[in-house]
Fold these 2 entries.
Entry 1:
Amino acid sequence: MEAIGLPGGALVNYIFPNNAHVTWSIMIVIYPYITGLVAGAFVLSSMYHVFGVKEFKPIANFALVAAFSFGLFAAMPLLVHLGQPQRAYQIYTTPHTTSAMSIFGYVYSSYLVLLMIEIWVIYRKVFIEKANETVGNMAIFWKILCLGITTYNPESAHFDKKLAKFLAGIGIPWACLLHGYVGFVFGSVKAVAWWATALQPFIFLSSAIVSGIAMMFLMYSFIMWRRGQGYDYALIKKFIITLWMAFILDYALEVLEIAFVGYEQGAHWAVIKPLLMGPLYNSYVLGQMGILSLGPLLVLGIASLLDIKDKALLYLGNLGSLMLVFQVLVMRFNVVVGGQLISKSERGFVDYEFEFFAKEGLLTAGIIMVAPFVTYYIISRFIPIFEGKSMDTEPKRASM
Amino acid sequence: MENSKMPDSRREFLVRLLEGTATATVLMVFGPGVMAHGPETGGTERADDADHKYAYIIDVGKCIGCGNCVRACKRENSVPTDYFRTWVERYVVREEGVYVDSPKGAIEGFEQLNKRFRDNIKLSRTVPKMCNHCHNPPCVQVCPVGATFKSPEGFVLVDRDYCMACGYCVQACPYAARFINPVEHKSDKCTWCYHRVKKGLLPACVTVCPQKARLFGDLNDIDSEVSKLFEADQWMVLKPEMHTDPTCFYIGLPREVV
Amino acid sequence: MSLPGPKAHIVRLVAVLVGALFAFLVIKEVVTPSSWNYKDWYRGDALALNSSYEAAYGGNQSCVTCHEEVNQELAEFRHQALSCESCHGALADHVKEGEKIGDAVVDDASSWQCLNCHDAQVSKPANFPQFDKEKIEEHQEIEPDMICTACHTPHDPTP
């Protein structure tokens, strides 16, 4: 092997013997990805619940249930990744507070509880209806879900709505904490040059919001298409503008990071430049920063700024969202796996190959990625998520 | 050293032996006298383990790259193939750059260098690597459950019965001294042969090194070899910019070594 | 039938949450290892675990308890400073519980153990005795399968 493109004046590619295996692979790629979808979907749902953006009203509950569906599986890749998954409970019993990872158990669980309570408060009326309509085991299930209170007090509606708003309100910083902290887990590792930047939490957070909004757009389009219910183009336009602006912020941070490291010409750049020009050229330069970023910027920009209507708007939105969903996935890959491709010998790059059938292979990743959608489908069989345009927590339907 | 001065830990160990619960064959066969004598003991003995200030010194100029240390470590600690608690690197500094290799961690030593790299060299050394047992270990900092820790004697150890193998410590170590053991699915690393040192032996790699390029001892014992070398103040540590404050010191470390 | 109070469900929810929190704290207390070191954050029993592994290498002191005669000779040998086990293998492969379980003889079919140290390489210290390939091949011209120990005593090799 020739010395071209190797750091540290290396004449041959030299990696430390223990670096030959990439310890964090696809599972740790999809872990922040799913966590990001949770955070992004939640922020979208809060657009209506907290900030009262009326256009988002039809999807506020949908985004919340979707966030919950993704949330249920956010920790799954971690469990699959662990060599000793039966010991995972230790992160709750003896969390080592000096570790950026140790609070994950608490932040994640409390966030899931918060999501559950918010959904519960919003859907309590539905649960009560179901408890009174059904018989047998299902009635017991719904009664338990109502915590035994099977009559709806109209006075509760006002209080519930305020509580939902409050939960959505504290949910935003919580979602930011959940995902910003995932960025911190990587950004605080000084031994991995490609991770170690204080911008990492912000990049993770902003890309999380982008991926969440984009995924909600795709799901919304798909569900509306399946239901043949007709599209709410005012919502779609708002969706596209929000997504476009979120991505501009995200892309600016991603560019800022690389521009800063590059301009600084420091120790990190000495290994990052050959990484980006070598092993990560396709997935980072061409993929993440190139096609998958410039494409959506252009497509969503056109859709946002020009007077585009109806189906054309829908198609542009879907095209941009699809690219962004992959942009963020590729970004997670470039960060998580890319960082480990730089051997700590600082004189060579690790060769990474995708596995398919392995425990942490692509098949497992695919199953975990599909699971939230299946979960969403199951939940949607039981509770109304889109019910025309009137499904919300307005007290007008409260009397039964 | 007299047997009466044995540290508590060893006394406990012998008591356990007498009770028939221990299986350490070495002591069974040869008795404690052998262990407590001669150059094989790791520095002075004190009652309190925290009074020790253990250090590991690697004299790069003496290393011949034979790989005895790597083989002994593999055998002593049952280290799986392709993973290393210690390994040896060969550096060849040339006008146009640096050639580095470590074939199979140098478990079979080194083959003669390719002629292309052999002529017109500026410097060439073999450099043993291992866990640096940092004072400020990033691996301990990042372990989310407290499964890796610094022992009272300063050894950075892994609790095999507690590690959940998340791999964060592997990422955090700047020296690539850690790995997830592919057989046990737990984090693994050099322990400075804690189990040997507690029995009064030296780490296996130090025991077999034919050149005394690897030294282990107590800096609190002013007569120990490590103390004298340390006092000469010509040592270096790996990646000082990481501020891990290693207790593994190198003498004659070429600046090209990472 | 009177309606439940407007906040009755919240009271129950809080009760459920408090109950869950209490259960969690109890479980946490129960499953945390009793030897936990709260100051330095590790399982105290881990120290005993880490020191419990058997030592495979005994050091030269372990060898001389049986092979006293070699020890007497060794004082004069050029290879006296070497570890017996680096060529002869680990004690644990030779003796177990006072019984010999395997031979500790050196493979005499090849010279790899000699060359492992003494093969000439640019990375070795200049004052270390080394033999380059040509010199070894010169020897082998005399007899092709010749090994170092045919002429040199491994314990006390003279040039």
Entry 2:
Amino acid sequence: MRPPLRHACLALLLMLKLGVAAADKGAPLERWLKALQPSTLSRAEQRAELEWFINAAKPFRGQSIRVVSETIDTHKYESEVLARAFSELTGIRVEHVLMPEGELVRKIQQQMKTGENLFDAYVNDSDLIGTHFRRGKTLVLSEWMRGEGKAFTLPSLNLKDFIGLPFTTSPDGKLYQLPDQQFANLYWFRYDWFSDPRLKARFKAKYGYELGVPLNWSAYEDIAAFFTHEVREIDGKRVYGHMDYGKKDPSLGWRFTDAWLSMAGAASKGYPNGLPIDEWGIRAEHCQPVGASVARGGATNSPAAVYALTKYLDWQKQYAPPGTLQLDFTDAGPVPGQGQIAQQIFWYTSFTAALGKRGLPINHADGTPKWRVAPSPHGAYWQAGMQRGYQDVGAWTLLTSTPVQRRKMAWLYAQFTVSRTVSLKKSMVGLTFIRDSDIRSAAMAKMAPRLGGLIEFYRSPARVSWTPTGPNVPDYPALAELWWKQIGAATAGEKSPQRAMDDLAEGMDTELGKLENAGLTACPPKLSPKRDAEFWFKAADGPRRKLANEKPPGQTIDYDRLLRIWREGGDSK
Amino acid sequence: MTCVGAALQNRWRAALLILTAALQGAGAAHARELVIVSETFAPYVFEQRGEARGFDYEVSKAVLARLGYTLNLQFAPWRRALVMAASKQVDGVLGIGRGNQNEREAFLAFPDEALSGSRVVLFYLKGRPFHYEGLFSLAGKTVGTLAGYTYSPDFASAPYFTREPVDTHEQNLRKLLRGHIDLALIDTAVGLYAAQQLGVAGEFSYEPHMISGGRQYIAFTRARGHDKLAQDFSKALVAFKKTDDYRAIFKAYGIDPASVAPPEF
């Protein structure tokens, strides 16, 4: 989950202009065929897809639908170009509304609760999969496509081409959402500075190991201290070894629920989010959440979770530019582009387009980046087999409360926006890839040198180890609300890290308790009795007790070696 | 070229191959022997009447001969083969990948050039057709896998279908025939070859969508000082892939080298 970007991409606007200009002349089908280039389909295959949409939509000509998604470049393109294309081709008018993610989550929650049809379809993050399969208010797409929706399901949709499908599938194997845009959270760093022989020598002389991509938080911290306190200036400009944000608003919650505790090592081993304890610290037994506090076998207030919050606070105070605790996600996002940041441990790839602009001091004159992306390092509690990082899929979600005829129209539009006819062009605009065919296309290979390793990441089999909020979270909207308030109290200095996490864990337990009898249709929470913390620290699958040493020796890896892992890893034998 | 011309050329080529093999055999008297372990992975590498065979084996043998080595191939189940390599009991492993995170590079030296590529797909009985749409389409099914293989974590951990590991690919095909499993996850070339050998090729079909796979190498044990050998092997393999000898090996197995070429990144 992450908030909107306010920064309209110049490239996007230019492409929109060109696309609209190209679409202004001739019959709609011919015009849009011309505008929707490039594509991984041949022109004849594109034409066949568009003709299928035109025919399938005939019963609905002249009607209109209203759909909603968050405010990011990908959805701007959809609302301004693809909605118009679909309307001109099919005669179904589309109002594609954009709003901040937090507001969107409240709308879908409201429709689920009241049954009032606020929107005909939502692009909703797969973080809510645990909510969808428990609430019983969301259309099961795998059943819809075989049943009522069959005649309106694009024969060439090619579901297996979608890279995010496992994230939108519930634990009982039902597909709830159709991926529309996808992004990951990675480590961002200045490859040019990390490759500078003088800086490398200085770092090695002080810390005794190579300056490189940090594999653990100790190395990240050393590198942060090195740039902020040792290097201090590069080319006459003050530089910093860390960047983050901490303003008390909903985006602060996502800074933590987007797997920060897992990255510290608070969760259990196990794919995708840790079993029995997930990245929110929720313990689940046989799919039923039983508690988040250590007293109930969870880890939200475990030593590892407190360590995660403490490091987050300390690094901002000691190594980040002044004032980051007063910034929200949107304010903080463009800061690395100003050229003063050496590394950022928690960086959403949805910022790639914004940081790829020519003229920024972080890019060379030819447009190639001075920066790269890499896997984020892990904390002292992390062990192999735990969640490696976060990625999420914004996915088309239909609710059962939407009248079936409107649902059919919305389903047609949803498929149109992710069809192979349009998806490569859309991917080039928003860089939020959803299809394997797009990632492996010649067009993407051509763009790859400008994207700092993003394409290499998406082509790598390692990609699947970055996962969204898992199915343990039974009511994402209600539980997410607790996080930013408690973390915010810590960033504001109102509570110590331990106190903030204790209060958060207690709030989570209370909320899980309320959900026990809230009429969930599958895997409802069932709070386990409280026990002494020592009981759980001794349990083989319980939260881990505090480590005697939370700063093991720093470890780094050469970026080029890491890139080779992405390129060559993933064999089955 | 006329048929007669082609036949003559083929005879000359055969004679040349025999001569080359004889020279390599003579050289082998002084060559150092490498003990390499592999699982049976026909037609890449397998045993027939006590003799090692397979295109990856023959290519490796030919390239090593050019470098002055003989190849003594031993067969073991895959899990055992990995243990033998990790515990330095052998000089290397044939038909191995680098591991999901290239972790096997810690104890094995890999040539840059791969021998071949594996494309692992879902086999099913023609009488019980199956259409793969994504992992969710496996819901409720039992899929035969191979013990010791590393599968993508989303496949390996999905809670809505069952994975049943066995020791050999043939076992999986037999289980499929008996209806004990719904699908078998097998390399395309291996599955087709094994079905042919079992005389049941007409019974099976497969979904062409690649579930996993990657490049396959001959990798050498680092603890035995074979890092340089890996580099030399890589260069020699690149050169050998351009020769008629290389193409002749694949022709003998009726396989187009392109169908088992290492996949591009």
